[in-house]
Amino acid sequence: MKYLAGPFAALLLSGVASAAAIEGPLHINDARSRAEFGVRLLWVSKVTGVFERIHGTIDIDPDDGRAVVQASIDVQSLKMDSTRFRNWVLAPEFFDAQRYPSISFVSTRIPLDALGNGDGLDGRLTMRGVTQEVHFTILRSDCTATHLNGCTLQALGAIDRTDFDMRGRRGALADRVELGLSITIGP
User: What are the structural domains of the chain?
Assistant: First the structure.
């Protein structure tokens, strides 16, 4: 499974269009977008999952040509090959989905030209009630200011799960969690 950037990095990419060409906020098409994660188990295999519901907007400031991404992932939308692993990952020692039903991201302001060029994306990721500064890499894209609806953006990143109070099974599970995002812009 190829991992894209932190569940929210690609969202910001959608704002990389010309501010003059866009009116109002852009929306993430949650039916065509997804976030992925992967973490090494016993340093041999990888536990992976896909979140299928991402909601959010990309707010573009027409005065300075910068955008801010706000996104939220529904933790219960997680799909995994193993029901046993899914139940464990949603349990209190990992995502704790009952107490924390969403993962959210708010980016710093990013220049609109970052979309086509690929760039870094900084922001604040909130998971399990803990907010941390994160950095992701936006992948180069063919999206342009005149073609954003239906455009798919991708980003890659990683976090240390202990930064978000995920400390269970450290002997068997790596601390580094790869994150990816594939976001389609549209109605």
Answer: 9-184 (2.40.128.110)
CA separation, residue 65 to residues 18, 19, 105, 155, 161 (Å): 7, 5, 20, 20, 34
Give the H or E element holding residue 178: strand 173-184
Higher local confidence (pLDDT), 34 or 143: 34
CA gap 39, 48 in Å, rounded: 7
Residue 89's alpha-carbon distances to 53, 152, 173, in angstroms, are: 17, 28, 12
Burial class (CB in 10 A: 0-12, 13-18, 19+), 84: exposed
pLDDT tens digits, one per residue of 109-127: 988 777 667 788 899 999 9
Of the pLDDT bands very low, low, confident and very high (cuts 50, 70, 90), residue 20 is: very low
User: From start to end of 75-171, where are the E strands?
Assistant: 78-79, 102-107, 110-111, 120-127, 130-138, 152-160
- Is residue 92 helix, strand or coil? coil
Instruction: Give CA torsion, residues 27, 107, 154, 56, to 10 deg.
Output: -20
pTM here is: 0.82
